[in-house]
Specification:
Length: 432
């Protein structure tokens, strides 16, 4: 069943995302894990369930808010975190910018950034554009970093306000406020560097000695609430372990995990062996994780990915199917299942699954590519054109999106769901 995206909502999405210079890493397990880490902080900020956490595939250290419902953190910063407390410190600070209303002063900046560069949507993935698959990860076209700095820069007053709020959130959530001081230490000295050598965080979040002293003083005076943090620490380790295993060289990962048999080490080993085309070793490792956690949808999903990328479509579909049974509302798992079904020749079933995935996450280019292919195989060129237009729009190729949307407009009944989706794109695309 289609979930209609109004023209206004589509345009809002475009304006909110045109300041990104890199693509996103989309992975169901990592996104779920980050939600578990963020939830205690967001609860204290009065933002539970309304904010999503996304990872930008960029080795630089940065984090920022894209709009009132999205926090972005660079993979480079995430992999430099040494604890769940430090990650929560970053998330608390960005959540404070949202909760304190700092985004309300951004419309003019957003327009300026959009004028500087009009490429890329927030949920774009380069692997989809290239037709490849790497844990749903990749880089897509986007705007220049100067546009990002224009849109997401904060004043020193905003930084001080966000620091105070974020430290309160941390203490109330049971997070050690000293972690905020540790994060700021990562950026010490950045403002003394030339712009070209600074990490983006230093350009968008002014760092001063007075700011560090204020954080130190609060952290020293406050005792965090005592809470059970085992779940937060577990999901932090799982998110960073998986991310590291996919982004770093397999040999580096295998050297680091050695013969360790704890859960996260086995997860990292499975991914490294898969990336080295050792399917037997990868399946042995992931099957041991599934045996320990048979109800874990993300381990079944990862097994499906290993099989699909090794050319075994039918067993991949079975693994994805099990994952989808456990987590029926996870659109990225549904998209993987649809992709596996397509590879296995089950086009009609795949189409149903992909439509459900689109209804819950209409900004996944890989899913939209598969959806267009499924419609084309079923002989529905109009809906295939709509899905293709949406994919190009998500990737920032608005001229191409308009071409396919115009084609769909002529093929589909006026007023139908697909026709209305084409109208959304035509209303948003630049006019010649």
């Amino acid at each position: 069943m289609f979930r209609k995206l109004t023209t206004a909502a589509f345009a809002l999405m475009l304006s909110a995302v045109q300041a990104l210079s890199q693509g996103l890493i989309r992975d169901a397990e990592i996104e779920y894990a980050l939600r578990q880490v963020a939830q205690p902080i967001l609860q204290q900020a009065g933002l539970p369930g309304s904010v999503k956490i996304y990872i930008i595939n960029d080795d630089k250290m940065n984090a920022f808010v894209g709009n009132a419902r999205a926090i972005f953190i660079h993979s480079g910063l995430l992999l430099r975190m040494e604890s769940a407390d430090q990650l929560q410190a970053v998330l608390a600070h960005e959540a404070a910018h949202i909760a304190n209303g700092h985004l309300t002063r951004r419309p003019a900046a957003a327009r300026q950034a959009a004028t500087a560069a009009k490429l890329g949507l927030i949920l774009s993935v380069a692997a989809a554009a290239a037709g490849g698959s790497r844990a749903g990860m990749g880089v897509a076209a986007g705007t220049a970093s100067a546009a990002q700095r224009t849109l997401f820069a904060h004043t020193r007053a905003e930084e001080a306000s966000a620091d105070q709020s974020s430290l309160r959130y941390m203490a109330a959530a049971g997070t050690d406020p000293k972690a905020a001081r540790e994060v700021l230490e990562l950026f010490r000295g950045q403002e003394l560097l030339t712009i070209g050598r600074q990490d983006p965080y230093a350009q968008t979040h002014p760092l001063t000695r007075d700011r560090i002293r204020a954080v130190e003083g609060f952290a020293a005076a406050v005792t965090p609430r005592s809470v059970d943090r085992r779940a937060v620490d577990y999901w932090y380790a799982r998110a960073t372990g998986k991310l590291s295993a996919f982004l770093r060289a397999p040999r580096w990962t295998l050297r680091r995990v050695g013969r360790d048999m704890d859960e996260i080490s086995v997860l990292r080993r499975a991914i490294a062996e898969h990336r080295q085309a050792d399917l037997r070793g990868a399946l042995s490792a992931i099957d041991s994780l599934i045996a320990a956690r048979p109800g874990d949808a993300y381990y079944h999903e990862l097994r499906g990915q290993f099989l699909l990328e090794s050319g075994q479509a039918a067993p991949a579909a079975a693994s994805y199917g099990r994952a989808a049974q456990i987590a029926p509302r996870e659109p990225l798992i549904q998209a993987g299942l649809g992709r596996a079904m397509m590879a296995a020749g089950q086009t009609a079933k795949a189409l149903q699954v992909l439509e459900r995935a689109r209804a819950n996450d209409p900004y996944d280019p890989a899913m939209l590519r598969d959806l267009a292919t499924a419609h084309a195989r079923q002989g529905n060129t109009g809906l295939a054109s709509v899905a293709t237009a949406e994919r190009y729009a998500v990737l920032g190729r608005l001229d191409d999106a308009a071409i396919h949307a115009k084609r769909a407009e002529g093929l589909l009944p006026s007023g139908s769901s697909g026709w209305l989706r084409a109208q959304d794109i035509l209303a948003t695309a630049p006019r010649r």
